[in-house]
Automatic annotation (TrEMBL):
It comes from the Eukaryota. It comes from Zizania palustris (Northern wild rice). One of its GO terms (molecular function) is cellulose synthase (UDP-forming) activity. Mn(2+) binds at K277, D301. InterPro entries: Cellulose_synth. This is Cellulose synthase-like protein H1. It is found in: Endomembrane system. The active site is at D143, D469.
Length: 766
């Protein structure tokens, strides 16, 4: 699969210059070190007055943490690169394009409505690829085992027989119907045929939507016929494997061929851990191996549709365009979102991290696996090392493995072992879908199939974290593979970002728990770099991400120092008359300006910058804090990990191309519920208000008595710190007096008030 020297290049690595940014990086680092030196000197010499005590020591620890994180951030951004693709040069090798198995995962028909999944599947079925009907197969994993989801996919096939030819005939750019029909194109007199086709397709899609939305589970089970017999009398967490071939091109007419579609609901049993999405992905890898066995696999979340019909061609340029396949173990497209709320009020679109940190990491050993929009080589998922790397440093290579070795590694299925053997030998040919293989597929989809094998460890998606994606990517990099970031125009895939405070913070909390689980486990990147082939700078890049939830105690401590000092008449910042104050102000302004210009350079607004900055502070005091305490409790067996699925909103064509929430009034405004994630940040908002009020009253009283600002009491720095925190928490300040979904529930207020009372009691004793 490597490109020969005589062929036209399919891709090119382009280093990106950022000398001006490097200079600012060094300036910020210098200011951080200067602040640390000033604070350390003040503590050693006791020159900080009454403030040179516990508060200054705590501040020093927090600032050391900030300096460490800045160094890791610099490492990630220091060597940016992008990869240009030349799909026009692929024409000479078009007949040699490998087959691709496409995976779509959904887990809950309520939180992830079937209409969302259907649009993603339709966009995959309509993708541009040579001999797509023979070379592409789409597998939909339904972890909810929902007859409604199965019904929606079955109905989608009838629409696909019209939709796919329509897209090819008229070169449709966006092939997810809900997006395509979100606006009406302009029809000229010469486009009468297109107008007629468009009208027919729009009517057919509207009928499809109504059928899916009106589908009732109980009615389907009673009147759906033999196709729904396997869904009768089952529990969603306790049922046998259900695998059905919905489309195999055997009934297609000329020009109607499109990828095969297979429905998969793996076996579930209360006695077996199902390992969330990682378990579902491993089942898809095995089922596809015994049914189609394509050498390339691409996986997308149920709400992440194909936005660029040439996406697969661009990916092949990167997978086939290197002389050594080691350089493209997997190809990851950046996560982008469609029709988002103006100015990203919940800070979850991640545009700047992908554009700044993403291209930086792409210049190292390669971008992380993000869990969706990723093309994998099957041999990589099977845990094989690159052909150019021999054994050593913890990398297992199997030259000509015996049948017993393959059985221990991959399980007892003869068909799966044959797939692995062919993958090892490089003689990997895709198969045509056959009903005769369904029973074999059910065998490898059984919940006990992985017992005694390497699945979930050295093979497939790795278990042990709710962020199985980044952990699996680390396993692949540790084996010696590199990865490539595929940033096309238009974006290869688009998804829907969570809407509202509860959904956003739930997602952040899940990520935080997963990342912290990796950090405290045997999969820690430092250990991986020491004993395997994870490069040092790539190790630091992973470490930067895994430390994200660990920022919670440091940021919260720094945020609490201001209220603490105002309430106890102390200080933790240099006074305005001291040299250290100018260092502090320069650092604050430089850092703020740095982030602001990054957003401007990415074409975003000042308000988007503020919303993202504010949400980082809110997330640290809420989602990250809960994640930080949840993992130790889970490790000690005092709590259980609960995987919370983020709500995906219905894909409607009548919403100006955006994500449609169930309550339109909530769009763009911070909403609240009774989740514990809101308690700590609500308490911080309350405490900041009390501290500013008490501190201001004390200052007024002193001046009224003629004493002015004396001793080591709080100065302007402490007031500025508290005010800045309060500005960041403004949505929660509004929530304290808001009503309905815009108001913080009384239960959360009472618990937050109890935390505030405990903090005030602590301050009173000091």
């Amino acid at each position: 699969m490597a490109a020969s020297s005589g062929e036209k290049k399919l891709q090119e690595r382009v280093p990106l210059g950022r000398r001006a940014w490097m200079l600012v990086d060094i300036v910020v680092l210098f200011l951080l070190l200067a602040l640390l030196a000033h604070r350390a000197a003040a503590l050693m010499q006791h020159g900080g007055g009454a403030g040179a005590g516990a508060a200054w020591s705590a501040a020093l620890v927090c600032e050391v943490w900030l300096a460490l994180m800045w160094l890791l951030d610099m490492n990630a951004k220091w060597s940016p690169a992008r990869f240009e693709t030349y799909p026009e040069n692929l024409a000479e090798r078009i007949d040699d394009l490998p087959a691709v198995d496409m995976f779509v995962t959904t887990a809950d028909p309520v939180l992830e409505p079937p209409l969302v999944t259907v649009n993603t599947v339709l966009s995959l079925l309509a993708v541009d690829y040579q001999a797509a009907g023979d070379k592409l197969a789409c597998y939909v994993s339904d972890d909810g085992c929902s007859p409604v989801t199965f019904y929606a996919l079955r109905e989608a096939i009838g629409f696909a027989r019209m939709w796919v030819p329509f897209c090819r005939r008229h070169s449709v750019a966006v092939r997810a119907p809900f997006r395509y029909f979100s606006s009406t194109p302009e029809f000229g007199t010469a486009n009468r045929k297109f107008f007629d086709d468009w009208t027919i397709m729009k009517s057919a899609y509207d009928k499809l939507v109504r059928r899916i939305e009106n589908a009732d589970e109980s009615s389907l089970l009673r009147h759906g016929g033999r196709e729904f017999a396997e869904f009768l009398d089952i529990e969603h967490m306790n049922h046998p494997a259900i695998i059905k071939i919905l489309w195999d091109n055997s009934k297609s007419r000329i020009g109607e061929e499109f990828p095969r579609l297979i429905y998969v609901s793996r076996e579930k049993s209360p006695g077996y851990h199902h390992h969330y999405k990682a378990g579902a992905m491993n089942v898809l890898a095995r089922v596809s191996a015994v049914m189609t066995n394509a050498p390339i696999m691409v996986n997308v979340d149920c709400d992440m549709f194909v936005n660029n019909p040439k996406a697969f061609t661009h990916a092949m340029c990167l997978l086939l365009g290197f002389d050594n396949e080691m350089h493209s173990g997997f190809v990851q497209a950046p996560q982008r979102f469609y029709g988002g709320l103006k100015d990203d009020p919940f800070g979850n679109r991640m545009e700047v991290p992908f554009k700044k940190i993403g291209v930086g990491i792409a210049g190292l050993q390669g971008f992380f696996y993000a869990g969706t929009g990723c093309f994998h080589r099957r041999k990589v998922i099977y845990g094989m090392a690159p052909d150019s790397i021999g054994a050593g440093r913890g990398v297992t290579t199997i030259g000509s493995p015996s049948y017993k070795e393959l059985q221990n590694r991959y399980g007892t299925s003869k068909e799966l072992i044959e797939s692995a053997r062919n993958t090892f030998s490089g003689n990997q040919l895709a198969k045509s879908v056959a009903n005769s293989r369904i029973e074999v597929a059910k065998e490898v989809a059984a919940c006990n199939y992985e017992d005694g094998t390497h699945w979930g460890q050295e093979v497939g998606w790795v278990y042990g974290s709710m962020t199985e994606d980044i952990l699996t990517g680390q396993r692949i990099h540790a084996a010696g593979w590199r990865s490539v970031l595929m940033d096309t125009e238009p974006s290869a895939f688009l998804g829907c970002a969570p809407i509202g405070g509860p959904a956003s913070l739930t997602q952040f909390k899940r990520w935080g728990i997963g990342l912290f689980e990796i950090l405290v486990s045997k999969n820690n990147p430092i250990l991986t770099a020491m004993f395997r082939r994870l490069q040092f700078r790539q190790c630091l890049a992973y470490l930067m991400v895994y430390l994200w939830p660990v920022k919670a105690p440091f940021e919260l401590c720094y945020a609490l120092l201001g209220p603490y000092c105002l309430l106890t008449n102390q200080s933790f910042l240099p006074k305005a008359s001291e040299d250290g104050f100018s260092i502090l102000i320069a650092l604050f302004l430089t850092h703020i300006t740095y982030g602001f210009i990054e957003f401007m350079e990415c074409g975003l607004s000042a308000r988007a910058w503020w919303n993202n900055y504010r949400m980082r502070r809110i997330t640290a005091a809420s989602a990250c804090l809960l994640a930080f305490f949840t993992v130790p409790l889970t490790t000690l067996g005092l709590s259980k990990t609960v995987f919370e699925v983020t709500r995906k909103d219905e894909s409607k064509s009548d919403v100006d191309g955006g994500c449609m929430a169930h309550n339109k009034a909530d769009l763009g405004r911070f909403t609240f519920d009774a989740s514990p994630v809101f308690i700590p940040v609500t308490a911080l908002a309350m405490l900041s208000i009390i501290a500013i009020t008490v501190g201001s009253w004390q200052q007024v009283s002193r001046y009224a008595k003629g004493s002015g600002a004396t001793g080591g009491g709080p100065g302007i720095g402490e007031f500025m710190s508290c005010t800045w925190v309060l500005l960041c928490l403004l949505p929660f300040v509004r929530g304290l007096v808001g009503k309905g979904s815009y108001g913080i529930p009384w239960g959360v207020k009472l618990k937050a008030g109890l935390l505030v009372a405990m903090f005030l009691h602590f301050c009173g004793r000091n």
